[in-house]
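note to self — DONT lose this again. spent like an hour looking for the file last time. sequence + predicted structure for the chain T wanted, 394 res
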Amino acid sequence: MYKEDFPFFENTNSVYLDNAATTQKPKVVVDKVVDYYTHFCANTHRSNFGDANKATKEFENTRELLKQFINAKESKEIIFTKGVTESLNMIASTFAKKFKTIIISSLEHHSNITPWHMQGRRLHDGLEVVNTKDNLEFDFEHFEELLKANPNSFVSITHVSNAFGTKHDIKRIVTLAHKYDSYIMVDAAQSLAHFEVDVQDLNVDFYAMSAHKTYGPTGVGAIYIKEELLKDVSTYQTGGATINDVSFERSIMLDSPYRYEAGTQNIAGVVGFGQALTYIKDIGIKNIFEIEEELYKYLYNELEKIPGIIFYNNSSNTIGSRSFNIENINCEDIGILLDKMHIAVRAGHHCAQPIMKKLNIDGTIRASIGFYNTKDDIDKFIVGLKKAITMLKD
């Protein structure tokens, strides 16, 4: 039904199950990006002629749409970035740098591990990692132990694991973190497109988002910063559009959000992001969740029937992605054969090597769904998977 909205599917017979890496873009988003470049291509927040005013208006409209989408209190709490990676690095290099201890989970993407290493932090030396229980569940007892031993820390946690789809109970994590005078940042790369997010209800301090995993353009995203913390986040980069007044003696910065958005932004990307949010809103994020939930259950049930399949986490607390292996078969060999059958999944460590090492595996096969997928896609994937397994066992 929804595939008709996406030009990608007009030109391919492929089964696309790599949505955790990036989602396809609906035609309305592609058209919006083209519209900017062909009808009002001008810089924002600088000039006052017609097209420049329109570009600024459309750019700021996305900020307002995103504010509403995540239920932020003020539009100035939304800062545009290149995506989750830059958002995490921005806060790591500014607000979080002053904390003696950083606490992360065992399921983090490399983007929430390497920024801390770049500060010279190492395990048990400025960096602590929360254990996982069986089925990769978050160990709240260990988390509280770490907080007790390290109050006034900075906690940085993924909302949903990109490698396994495990969903963290962010509200409970936030409550515990704040109990011990700690701050929390959430990696929302795998959550924003799948279910309703309310940053005020979650009470998070920072929330990092990417457009390209939310049916929007690549190279653009945002970081939500709680209003009362804006004064404590130093400027990450400076230059054009961040300045109120400059002399050779000093620079006076603008207020948020503009002080954090140096240089010419990815205007087309931001405008396209706004259209993607509108598209999702028109369908309804609750409808999307229900569609994907049904597809996910179907995917899991079909996978469960395959002999020799190995799962690593609990399906009841998993969203969007299903990671698995087949006994005695290399995951990447399966991925290569599926590609030959025009079935796109991801095989490998998914930029989450530490948890793979802990599980003593090189990687997994990951099938990740979007609401435009169908049961027919899953059926073709299962047929292809069985064929690949037979070929590799012979």
